[in-house]
Amino acid sequence: MKFFKDKILLSGIILIVIIVVPSFIFSLYQYGSIDTEEEVIEDVYENQLDAILLSINQYSTDILNAWVKDLNQIVNMADIGKTELESFFSNRKQIIAVYARELDSGEAPFIAWAGTPFTHVSAQIEDYINSNEPLIARLKEHLESNYQQVLGFDVLSEKTNLSGFVFLMKDLQDNIYVGVIIVNTNRFIDEIISPKIQETAGNKMNIVVYHNTTDEIIYANNANADIQVQKSKELWLMPNYFIGIELPGKTLDDLVNRRVTTIIVLIVLFNLILITGIWYLFRNIKRERELIKIRSDFVSNVSHEIRTPLSMISMFTETLKLNRIKDENKKKEYYNIIYQETKRLTGIVNNLLNFAKMENNKRVYTFGRESLNDIVRDIFYTYKFDLEKKGFVYESSLDENLSHIDIDKDAVTDALVNLLNNAIKYSAEEKFIKISTGKDNKKQFIAIEDRGIGIPERDQKHIFDKFYRVTSGDLAQKAEGSGLGLSIVKHIMEAHQGEIVLNSKLNEGTKVILYFPDKTENNPT
Ligand code: ADP
Fold first, then answer.
1. Has this prediction a pTM greater than 0.70?
2. How confident is the model at residue 248 (pLDDT cuts 50, 70, 90)?
């Protein structure tokens, strides 16, 4: 048995070592790596914002490149394709003017306007080209290696809300031209850049385009938001304009904090589940051990209970067999003892069998119209001799007006025998037993009362459980029993849809009342 107990404990320990310890180590590791996680999130977040800004910038550059390509074709046409230029303007409402002249000679500057010309702009373009020679030289180098780069310049934007894009292009004779496209800045941002922003960001984040020095917001995808820009980058083509991003309601710190909180909550939850698991495991181990003890106590209790009548029977038959007893009365007394002990033995075995049947739900109840008073009379008749011999004063108080009710007579007799045996077993100095019957609120009852040792209050709610025995008190310990009697009574009463009421006081006595439903009251026959 000890080995078995230890085996359960061993399984528990092995489980802890295999599951719990690694899990705790894992939680600790997770907790420890929160800082690293934080950095990783920050990196991921930064990269994501960078990617969005990059894609918006790249998109506007692509648009400009396409425009430049179209313009290059128009410039290459004889007499600068006039009608094509018109459709070039009408398809691109953001463009205010296009400008071109031969780079080296500086001759034949050409400027075409989509609408009313701003005369001062031509001069500004010339100024810009002349004062940015190194920049133009770089564009030339790129063009020689077949890369037509477009650069934005801000000279015009501040005062006029115009932006310029400068680039070089070749005509069919490989002459190099410097070209400039002038756009309405607000329209370019509104009509070209903002749809791309909408497409990229949707509602997930707030994005604004603003002027770097004046902070004027040219575009916001969420007009109602009070935006706190978390990250910004200049528009490649409009150096004075910036794109700023904010995740609505979530700063980077918020994000990190939320994730860290989630991790901590998960770790705590995970460990709570683990602890509950361990507690459950040990509770089961404890229960299993208790069950093992109950089983072994039960076997020894039953053995004891059976041994007493057996030894009595064997002792008296032995004496009678030797024929030493000559006195007929004595002989009669011995036979009676043997008979009584056999009855006791039969009672014990019956109880065990009944219990086994009940456990397997196999006890069949046969109901018939019976009188509770008859049952009490029969029992007193059977137990009369036993009670008197043991020095009991007993009395009955039967309500003679009781009608017959639907009960299983044998089962109710079993229940009463169990209660009577307990009253006998657990009576010490004052040996008194009273059985009464009666009617109480449409129910008939049998009450059995003793003035024995009583039942401690803390045990009272358990004594109807199977195998349960009171372990405190001298007599309770010494008395033989298997702890089944009251659980059988309970089962029988449940089968009768009845009720049991227990009134017991330590050292004063016990009264058990069995209530049976009296259906004749509701449906008189
Ligand atoms: P047992 O075989 O031990 O008598 P029961 O199920 O009949 O088993 O009773 C359970 C316990 O309740 C007993 O061990 C006893 O301690 C207590 N008990 C039952 N009836 C009485 C009573 N009339 N007086 C005192 N204690 C009682």
1. no
2. low
